[in-house]
Amino acid sequence: xEKEKILEVINVNKLYRNKxxxxxxxxxxxxxxxxxxxxxxxxxxxxxxxxxTGLITDYTGEITFNGHPIKQKxxxxxxxxxxxxxxxxxxxxxxxxxxxxxxWILEEGLRVRKQGTSDDRKKRVxxxxxLVALPIDVISRYPHELSGGQRQRVSIGCALMLNPExxxxxxxxxxxxxxxxxxxxxxxxxxxKELGISIIFISHDLNVVxxxxxxxxxxxxxxxxxCNIADKIYNNPQHHYTKSLLDSILI
Length: 251
Ligand SMILES: Nc1ncnc2c1ncn2[C@@H]1O[C@H](COP(=O)(O)OP(=O)(O)O)[C@@H](O)[C@H]1O
Ligand SMILES: [Mg+2]
Fold this sequence. Notes:
This protein has one domain: Rossmann fold (3-Layer(aba) Sandwich). It is of the alpha/beta class. 41% of the residues lie in helices and 26% in strands. The site of magnesium ion (MG) has 4 residues, from helix 1.
């Protein structure tokens, strides 16, 4: 039996000022897996994730979530679809509103979608804080009062608030110290294993991707040049570009 594809990217092309940034991208995500997307800065990783989360819609080709196209015309449908696919950004310092408390920030996704009463939302915030291992008292704190690792936990918490089926973590550990990176990676593993959330993990660091992911897609110049199970990519790369990525790690 074929494994269930929760997400499928089919022949996606995207231009910026007539310059191709994504070139015939074909990719799928199996329900429950962690897929790594690796490649140098500027190769199109963030652009692809913005297409998948519905933030970019002017691409050609198709992206389906559970078999249905995610590209929709009206805002309500876009919000419904995108609630299932949440993004965690690289730099939580710039993605968290500095003027709002962590409690307010965590509630926001539910508030804009008018989900639950104020009490329901507060209960959910407390559940999520427990899940991402943050103390309850961060509710009344501001982003600048937290450490980098704690802010990344808040970002992951924001993504989890809406009960997503897919999380896209875009360079989510790249700006953190190695020991904090490991904690955040373990949190992503816990979310994957305990909640069954499928994850696309984006990084320029093939070592981190290998540690975390079931399969790895290698991107270069807007193309997916190789995609396979993590062990094969790491130990038996087929493409010279993947080999050069590996060589640069070993040095
Ligand atoms: N808003 C934008 N307008 C014009 N060009 C962009 C924009 N965003 C990204 N690009 C270009 O698209 C290419 C891919 O960028 P990006 O998806 O951010 O790569 P990555 O995330 O892999 O570093 C780069 O050449 C970048 O300069
Ligand atoms: Mg990027």
